[in-house]
Amino acid sequence: MRSEDSEVKIAVLEEQLRGIRQQQKTQAENTEKLFDKLFEEIDKLKAAMNRGRGVFAASLTFAGAIGAGITATLEYLSWGHK
């Protein structure tokens, strides 16, 4: 009788252990997918930041060119009136 009870308990514990291992496997797969998505989003943010830096640099260059043009024009006009 005792041997049968022990065998049943062992069988129950083995089944529970299989269930726990399956849960761990599923959680690990879900975590891996989550990290993959997270890394993709980080890459997208980096790309957006780099585009923003390029636009900012271009706008500074454009503003500098306009400022230089205005300054040169004003300097030319001021020399002509002296």
Q: What report would you give on this structure?
A:
Helices cover 96% and strands 0% of the residues. It is built from one helix and no strands. With 82 residues, it is mainly alpha-helical. The longest helix is centred in the middle third of the chain and has 79 residues, at 2-80. The model has no long low-confidence stretch (mean pLDDT 90).
- How many whole angstroms does the radius of gyration measure? 35 Å
Q: Which bin fits the share of residues in helices?
A: over 70%
Quaternary class: single chain
Terminal CA distance reads 121 Å
Total count of helical runs of at least 4 residues: 1
Percentage of residues in strands: under 5%
Outline, from the CA principal axes? Answer: rod-shaped
Uncertain ranges: none
Number of DSSP strand runs: 0
Query: Which class of secondary structure composition applies to the elements?
Result: mainly alpha
Largest sheet: none
Mean pLDDT across all amino acids: 90
Listing every helix as H and every strand as E from the N terminus to the C terminus, the arrangement reads H
How are the SSEs ordered, and which strands pair?
Blueprint lengths: L1 H79 L2
Key words describing this protein structure:
about 80 residues; about 95% helix; 1 helix
Short recap of the structure:
96% of the residues lie in helices and 0% in strands. It contains one helix and no strands. The protein has one helix at residues 2-80.
